[in-house]
Design brief:
mainly alpha
Length: 422
């Protein structure tokens, strides 16, 4: 089941990733309240301060939160890159990320400039701590799988995203916007979504899809070359923007590259060696399908506003995939840690979270995405979309929490006492 290079003896304490995973849906709840109580004309306007705050509630509070939690598990396990003091490292990154996200996002939503100072400080601490450690560890890994190579590129792209973000933040603090401001905004978005997010998702997919779903491996070219091509394209984009070259050709190349990745991902999932039903497959298939739709919308500029593109990419692609991954990671880690402590009579991995509730969550989640999109045409539907998104995140939180509670309950028993499991 496990590929070469995978070591389960180096996993950090289970509390490390769990705290990040349980925090993410709380930020989802916050996002739903912002959509509920602030004017849709502002939250859907990409140039408004409300939208800037909302975007960062998602990219920092959900996307980065889950990625940072998962990476602290995956670096030691998939790459053999061990963080020496995992609890201290997690405390610094998690606390700084939570505070930084809240301060920065609400500095824009509430137009309170003073909060931005604190947001910048805490986010700089979180991201610099995480990426300096990641780069140091990953670039010293000897056994280079396609996943490790993609993780390296992700860590560099993430650091660049941070520096671009800091430049933009200081521009807002000083109220000094240079002629290159919007170019930096575009690059910040590009490196964040295609570098920080997509590069890691590609790399992890190469390992996770065959491992968890007993599915076909991605073609070697896709594994070894596609992340590198995407990474190089990000820097080529900077050159195009700086010299004012028409960006259309790069948009076409980006779209072809990313849609090709989706095609191979869906092909792998649809041709599993052991085609057993798994509700988390729905999340992956929705995610990759949404990414294809996003690329088509972006390539052909199908809508005057970027609101629909943002919803389909963020909630349809990114959040669907992140939820599907967390639903696999938490049960697997729970089972593994208990097994390694000597527990022999355990729930199966699929029994840690009741699949019925995963299905219910999926339908609520996809309904929220659909109604968020429809809100563009019928604005009053934003209230229904927000309420569905609220319930979706509550369900996500409770499903994860129940698995964690099940782990805690079992871990308090004697491994040799089998009476509780009869």
């Amino acid at each position: 089941m496990f590929n070469q290079g995978l070591s389960l003896d180096q996993a950090p304490p289970i509390s490390v990733p769990f705290r990040f995973f349980l925090t993410a849906p709380i930020f989802g709840v916050v996002i739903s309240f912002v959509f509920l109580f602030f004017p849709f004309s502002e939250t859907s306007n990409q140039y408004s301060h409300f939208a800037i705050g909302l975007v960062h509630l998602f990219t920092l509070g959900i996307l980065s939160m889950i990625i940072f939690g998962a990476m602290q598990q995956m670096m030691p396990v998939l790459a053999g890159a061990i963080i020496k003091k995992p609890r201290l490292f997690a405390n610094i990154v998690h606390t700084s990320l939570v505070l930084g996200t809240l301060f920065l996002s609400f500095s824009f939503i509430l137009e309170l400039k003073n909060l931005l100072y604190f947001g910048v400080i805490f986010l700089a601490i979180a991201f610099l701590t995480f990426f300096i450690m990641s780069i140091k560890l990953l670039f010293n890994v000897k056994f280079l799988t396609s996943t490790v190579k993609a993780m390296r590129l992700f860590s560099v792209a993430g650091l660049i995203t941070l520096f671009l973000g800091l430049y933009l933040a200081f521009s807002h603090i000083n109220l000094s916007f240079s002629e290159n401001y919007y170019m930096v905004v575009f690059l910040h978005i590009l490196f964040a979504l295609f570098g920080f997010a997509l590069l890691l998702i590609m790399g992890v997919s190469f390992q996770v899809i065959p491992m968890f779903y007993v599915a076909l491996d991605f073609p070697k070219f896709v594994q070894n070359k596609m992340p590198l091509i995407l990474f190089v394209l990000l820097f080529v984009s900077a050159g195009f923007l700086y010299f004012g070259i028409n960006f259309l050709i790069l948009k076409i190349i980006f779209a072809i590259l990313i849609i090709s990745f989706c095609f191979y991902g869906l092909k792998s999932l649809n041709n599993r060696r052991r085609p057993v039903f798994d509700a988390t497959l729905w999340y992956w298939k929705l995610s990759l399908s949404s990414l294809i739709i996003s690329m088509i919308i972006w390539l052909f500029n199908l809508f005057e506003s970027n609101y629909i593109l943002a919803i389909v990419f963020a909630f349809g692609f990114l959040y669907s995939l992140l939820q599907g991954m967390v639903y696999k990671i938490i049960p697997f880690l729970s089972w593994f840690h208990l097994s390694s402590k000597g527990y022999f009579k355990l729930p199966t991995i699929r029994e840690f979270i009741d699949e019925r509730y995963i299905k219910i969550h999926f339908f609520v989640h996809i309904s929220s995405v659909i109604f968020f999109v429809l809100s563009h045409f019928i604005n009053d539907l934003i209230y229904l979309a927000s309420i569905l998104f609220l319930f979706s995140n509550i369900l996500f939180f409770l499903n994860c929490l129940n698995a964690v509670k099940k782990y805690i309950s079992i871990s308090k028993t004697d491994p040799m006492d089998l009476s509780a499991f009869k």
